[in-house]
Each structure stands twice: as structure tokens, then as C-alpha cells.
Amino acid sequence: MPIATDPLSRIFFALADPTRRAMLERLAAGAATVGELAEPFAMSRPAVSQHLGVLEQAGLIERTRQGQWRSCALRPEGLDDAEQWVTEHRAAWQSRFDRLDETLAALVAGERDAGSASDAHHEASDAGPSDTSTTDQADASVGDPKEQ
């Protein structure tokens, strides 16, 4: 799978994997060695290193080496681009949801209005015989075709 080239795509690609998100959550508590990060996962060290490489390329972590120890630390500013993108688009999405809510409310209100008019018609016809109106006479004259 080709790695994304723009910074925002790299961030979202890195966040798309649950293993990498778990590693970021662990690093939120403080720096950790590669071994500490690998501990909860049943995967090889090269696979862990590959995940860390994706996080580093996205700018979400920083890897350092001190002697034989390799440690990783969270870079919270790495999420700034993603946060800015979501913030910019949230207003447009919210506006669309608000319009959808208004449309649905109008449809429901229209159904209620149509339903109460229909209910009133049914109540009048279910009320039983009353003085004969022209509508009742017209309905009575239609009848069943077999009777004609």
C-alpha cells in the first residue's frame, strides 16, 4: 500500500490503525521504549518498528536513541493539521445537519397536518347515518357493479 504524501493524509493514515492508536494512547502517559510499546501486542519487532515509522512520518511521535535504548515520545502538535481540518469542516457538516433537521421537522409536521385532516374525514364518515348530503347520495348511487 502506498504511503500518503501530504501531511494530512499521513496523519489520518496513521490514526486509521487501531494498533497505532493504542501506541499513541500509551505514549500520552509519557515516553516509552520500543519494547514497552511492543509488549501488549502479539507481533514481531519489525512490525512494531513499521508502525512506529508510520507514526513518526506522520509527525505524531519522535524516536530517540540513547545507547542501546530506543525511546518514543508523543508529539501532540502533530495532530494540529488534522484538528484544523476537522474544525474547518465541522461548521459545514453542522449546517447540513441543521438543514436536514429542519426538513425532517417540516415533513413530520406536514404528515401530522395531513393525518389530522384525514382523521377528521374518517371520523365524519364513521359517525353513522346522518341527514343525507349530496356526497352521501353520490356515494350511494355508485354501488356495486353486480347490483346495477
Low-confidence stretches: 133-145
Total strand segments = 3
Strand content: 5-15%
Which percent bin holds the helix content? 55-70%
Number of helices: 6
Structural class: mainly alpha
- Tell me the distance between the termini: 78 Å
How would a crystallographer describe the biggest sheet? 3 strands, antiparallel
What is the succession of H and E elements?
A: HHEHHEEHH
Q: Identify the overall geometry.
A: elongated
* CATH C-level name of the domain at 7-77: Mainly Alpha
Mean pLDDT: 82
**Corresponding CATH superfamily of the domain at 7-77:** Winged helix-like DNA-binding domain superfamily/Winged helix DNA-binding domain
What's the CATH topology label of the domain at 7-77? Answer: Arc Repressor Mutant, subunit A
Domain HTH arsR-type: 1-94
Region (Disordered): 111-148
InterPro entries: ArsR-like_HTH, HTH_ArsR_DNA-bd_dom, WH-like_DNA-bd_sf, WH_DNA-bd_sf
Biased composition (Basic and acidic residues): 111-125
What is this structure, in a nutshell?
The chain has 148 residues and is mostly helical.
Folded structure, characterized:
The protein has a domain at 7-77: Arc Repressor Mutant, subunit A (Orthogonal Bundle), CATH 1.10.10.10. The chain has a three-stranded antiparallel beta sheet. It contains six helices and three strands, in the order H-H-E-H-H-E-E-H-H. The chain is 64% helix and 9% strand. Helix 1 packs antiparallel against helix 4. Residues 1-94 form the HTH arsR-type domain. Residues 111-125 have a biased composition (Basic and acidic residues). It holds the Pfam family HTH_20. GO terms for molecular function: DNA-binding transcription factor activity.
